[in-house]
Structure formats: C-alpha cells, structure tokens
Design goal:
Oligomer: single chain
Number of helices: 5
Strand content: 5-15%
Distance between the termini: 50 Å
CATH topology of the largest domain: Arc Repressor Mutant, subunit A
CATH architecture of the largest domain: Orthogonal Bundle
Radius of gyration: 21 Å
CATH class of the largest domain: Mainly Alpha
Length: 103
C-alpha cells in the first residue's frame, strides 16, 4: 500500500479522487500530464494495493477510493507517530537529566 502511494502520480490520483469522488479515466486524465494508458496503469496498481476500486456506470468505469485501506494506513502511521513521540519524551528527559548532572 505504501509503495503504491509512494509514486507521486498515484498520490495525485488518490488526492483527486478524495476531492472529487468517483471519476472515470477520461475525467482523471483531464488536466493531468499523463495519457489514459498511464492513468489506467496507475489505477490498476492502486487497485492491486486495495486503495481504489472500479464500478461500471453505463459504458464507462468509475473509479473510487476504498477508504478501509486508507484508514488502515492512518492507524499504522498514528502508531508510528506515537512511538516517535514517546522516544522524543525519553530523549528530552535524558538530555535534561544530563544537563542537571553537569550543573
């Protein structure tokens, strides 16, 4: 999932789907500096990562985000952030205690 989001083009597609809701490949290509083929390739990579899914609407497919995977990523990043916060608290306490010992 993070590898899929690590690509700037894919991240722009995800951001666009967040802002606009479900879009067709034609709409996703509008204003993008990519061909339909490139957008399709990126959508399939995002789909393989479980981040987007497509649904048929008449003659075209609409692509939408699958929020479950993004929520999973958010939880994971929250855990990492909490660990970093704890490590920084410990580091601050260590630096402050060494400063008192030297005084």
């Amino acid at each position: 999932m993070f590898a899929a989001l690590g690509d700037p083009a894919r991240l722009r597609i995800v951001a666009r789907l967040c802002e606009s809701g479900p879009l067709s490949i034609v709409r996703l290509t509008e204003g993008a500096d990519m061909t339909r083929q490139a957008v399709t390739k990126h959508l399939h990579a995002l789909s393989d990562a479980g981040l987007v899914r497509s649904e048929r609407s008449g003659r075209e497919s609409l692509w939408r985000l699958d929020p479950r995977r993004l929520e999973e990523a958010q939880r994971y990043l929250g855990q990492i952030s909490a660990r970093w916060d704890q490590a920084l608290v410990r580091l601050t306490a260590l630096v402050e205690s060494e400063g008192r010992d030297e005084a």
